[in-house]
Amino acid sequence: MTISINAAFDGGNIRVVAIDGDRIDLEIARDHLSDFFQWFSFRVAAAAGRTLTFRIVNAGQSAYPFGWPGYKVRASTDRVAWRMTETRYLDGVLEWNWTADTQLAWFAYFAPYTMEMHDALVTRTAAQPGVTHRELGVSLDGQAIDAFTIGTGVKQVWLYGRQHPGESMTEWWMEGALERLTDATDPITAALLDKATFHVVPNMNPDGTRRGHLRTNAAGVNLNREWHAPSAERSPEVLCVRNAMDATGVHVAMDIHGDEAIPANFIAGYEGIPSWTEDHGAKFYEFGRRLAAHTPDFQTEKGYEKSSAGNANLSMSTNQVAERFGALSMTLEMPFKDHDPNPDPEFGWSPERSKQLAHAMLETLADMIDRV
């Protein structure tokens, strides 16, 4: 039977360049109206009994080519378990071999979290006691921007993710956070919800998610560069969330992301905002120290360079929210590779570990909530 490659599904992205025997040359499609690309997700059919070589020939022109060295493609035969497979990057080409013992195999940049999965998460979360669902607005393609309110406390906590849709680990984190926040049997959760009200937006970029984008919405806009001046024409997703924040105020904000290059979990803060004070910044640093002491899946040594005084980019949500509300605001970055200080040679950084990190961050916040 002839091998076939297909990415015409929710969140799919790949193009066939050529199939020559057992060698398959592919390229990743750019985000619509944008030059960003790196996310891929596709399936191969009629592969059983063959050893195939896959080559993504435009990997060197991707948004973050420095992220490919040391990266391993995720592969699955059941779309549940996504294991790492040995991957090579040489001369701008990403390449891996696959010996197939099933009719179908699936490959992705990271374990996918599709819009079908998002809708299932929203439906089951909305059915939990003590949860209020709101549709804050709609995307450019008309998809809902779903949000949940959970808790009765005076501290206003915002959790939001997937501004960059190709960072699918972010919605796995959100699933873990929502499961923990709706666990009526957990005493840590109960005490936290007495002190805080949570507002959770599990996917801020549904259009990019469905389209298989790396970083942008349906208009080719990077939502995490819109927070200073969001508009209905370019970034309604940010506009509706920021308006809702204005209505509640924000004491704590966690913006959940993935990083292509750094093989570790870390948080980025709001150094360089105009209103920066040492006392304000101390809360951010304390959270990081406490989280690193709480779980081996977090560290504080690796991360982004800090902005110098007065030079924070206020178009980014963490900086804008810290400046606008005086909030303890942070960007969590999870790896496409693995958390090298505590590695997993089979799965690397994974959906389950993303969910567990959400639990650890909520537990850390519970210990600090009286101080924010």
Automatic annotation (TrEMBL):
<dbReference type="Pfam" id="PF18027">
    <property type="entry name" value="Pepdidase_M14_N"/>
</dbReference>
<dbReference type="Pfam" id="PF00246">
    <property type="entry name" value="Peptidase_M14"/>
</dbReference>
<dbReference type="InterPro" id="IPR040626">
    <property type="entry name" value="Pepdidase_M14_N"/>
</dbReference>
<protein>
    <recommendedName>
        <fullName>Peptidase M14 domain-containing protein</fullName>
    </recommendedName>
</protein>
<dbReference type="InterPro" id="IPR000834">
    <property type="entry name" value="Peptidase_M14"/>
</dbReference>
<comment type="similarity">
    <text>Belongs to the peptidase M14 family.</text>
</comment>
<dbReference type="InterPro" id="IPR050821">
    <property type="entry name" value="Cytosolic_carboxypeptidase"/>
</dbReference>
<feature type="domain" description="Peptidase M14">
    <location>
        <begin position="111"/>
        <end position="372"/>
    </location>
</feature>
<feature type="active site" description="Proton donor/acceptor">
    <location>
        <position position="333"/>
    </location>
</feature>
<dbReference type="InterPro" id="IPR008972">
    <property type="entry name" value="Cupredoxin"/>
</dbReference>
